Every structure is written in structure tokens, then in C-alpha cells.
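Forgive a beginner's question, but might I ask you for the amino acids of a protein and the C-alpha cells describing how it folds?
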Amino acid sequence: MKTNPGYLVLENGTVFSGQLLGSGSHLGEVVFNTSMVGYEQIISDPSYAGQIVVLTYPLVGNYGFNPQNMEAQRSWLKGLVVNQLCNGSDHYEQQMSLGEYLYDHSIPCLQGVDTRALTRMLRLTGTMGGIITTRLDNLADLQKQAGCLTPPPGGYVGQVTRTDMKMTGLGPRRVVLIDYGVKRSIITSLVARRCQVIVVPAQTSARTILDLEPDGIVLSNGPGDPADCGFAIATIRRLVLGGVPIFGICLGHQLLSLALGGKTSKMKFGHRGANQPVKDLRSGRVYMTSQNHGYTVEESSFHDKAVQVVFSNLNDNTVEGLIHQELPLMSVQFHPEAAPGPLDTGFLMDEFVARVDAYIGARELSIRRVI
């Protein structure tokens, strides 16, 4: 596959050069991910909508590409930046090379970049807008474009969410999953625990969700600023009143926090990688987690003492998980289903299912008493 000289122009005027697989100009927020493996899942995670992803591991593509490992039907990121793109691999599950997939799906990949220097800059100055291009004719205009990054009308969640309901899995538990940009692995993890999962669009009303008679509700991961999702926050507030167990993951954690009266703020460069250390404040145990987010929940913003912080990030002490002392609500900032990443916190899926079973049991007991 032919490449041409290409450039990443940042909003601060810095230019990184390399070889571009693809063509045209591509604008996005430049972020970095420290995972050593899992590029199939990373490029297909809807949470990266509107972003240009820098992979810090220097060799990418060494085990090829298998579409069955994707987290969504398509990729939503604006571009990929790597040090070295490997197109020669012999993995037994490989169906094509990573370069072939990127080229066939018009995903620009700037390779040969000093990703170490680029990552250091993003860590020092914070994430910023950038544009991948093949031309530097007017650097001032490119820098201006990079600094004028705005989300699409309705936000990125409206861009990536599904448009219809879908039911999958069989089991005694009915779980409604609100799709803000869900990863397939979350659905797979619930189905493996004998849940019937009904995936609904992000804009689905609370009344419609409750009419489905769920035994549990999952608020999925997704892209963008949680404060842009006012419609979702209002819906969650109504769902909380329904008494059904709710589990928020990543963006879902942030939205649940906002619905409970908390606040969120943008982080300097976020957490994106499969090696984030998180401490369970109840047991003192530390887990390695997979994360992908650029916003955090402000612990000091909670005035409701019933909201308890139960997980904390060991690198910067940001909030990583909450439970409600009186209502069946729990949420985590990281990804308990991993993909890619360690499986250390998969027990949280079991904890949610246990809450669902307790809800079902209490409901059936109440019915028997009435009879």
C-alpha cells in the first residue's frame, strides 16, 4: 500500500512528520493510549469518536487484524498515529493486515512519527486539537483549524448510538442497556452471565425503558463530554426513582454521577490504556484496569452522603467508582469487561448480577405477599 509524506499539525503550532496511509485532511482531538496490545479493540471503540489516537507502543499491527475482535461494526476515530506500522504477520486468527483494514475503511494512519516526543508533549500541555494532512501550504490556517475543534450537533453520543432496539441473549434476568457508544464486550459479558440484554438508543425515554420491565439497567461507555448529554442525565434521574438496579460504566458512570448531583471536569490528558492502577477503598486491594476517558467526576461535588467513593486511581487520586448506600446504584470509571486489558475487575459484573437477582427476589416476595 502506497504512502505519502504526511503531517500532524497541533493547535499549538507543533508539526510532527511521517508517512501517511490515506489521503485528505482529518481533524480531531489528539489523545494517547499506552496499551501494548489491543489495537483492534481500540480503533473500534466508539468512545474514540472525534479523536486522533496516538499509540505509544512502538510496533503496531504485529498480529494482524481480525474483524471479529472489533468492539463495534465500524471505527469512529478520526485517525491513528504510530511509530511503526507492521504489515507482515502470521497470527493464526489474522484475516488481513492492520494496514489493509485501515486503508479499506479510509482511516488515515500517520506512521513513522516520533510518538515518544508527541506523547511527552501531550502529557505536559494536555490533549489538544490536531489535523492530519498531506500539505503544509498554509501552516497558520491548519493551526487555526486544529484549535477550532467542536463536537457535532447533538454531541458524539448522538453520532455513535444505535437507532433501534436490539435483544440478545437468553436467561432469567432482563437487562436494558442504554447505548451511548457501547462496546460489544460489555454486551457479551452480560450475556455470558445469563442475562437477556435489550440494547436501546441513547435517546430512549425513561418511560419506554421502564415499560420493558427491566430487572437491571446498564449505562454504557461512550464518547465526549458528559455535560453535553443533558437528555441522558434527565432520563437517568427518572430511572433512579424506579428502584431498578443501575450499573454505570465509563461515560455511564459520569452520567449517573451528574444525575445524582455531582460534577465532572475535563482532565489534562485523561486515562487511556490497559494498565491503570485502581484501589478498592473498601478492601485496600489494588487492581489493574482498562480505561478510556478524558473527564472525571469531582468527589468534592457530592453533597449526598449516601454516595460513597469506593474506587480511586492510584496515579492521580481521581474517582474511579461509586456506590449508593440507600439505592441499588453502582458505577465505575474503568472497564470491568476489559477488552483490551486485564480481567481483574470482572467480579463487578457478578456484583451487578447479584444486585439484579436480589431485586428479582424482593419483587417476587412482594407479589406473593399481595396474593
The chain is about 25% helix and 30% strand. Residues 347-370 form the longest helix (24 residues). The mean pLDDT is 95.
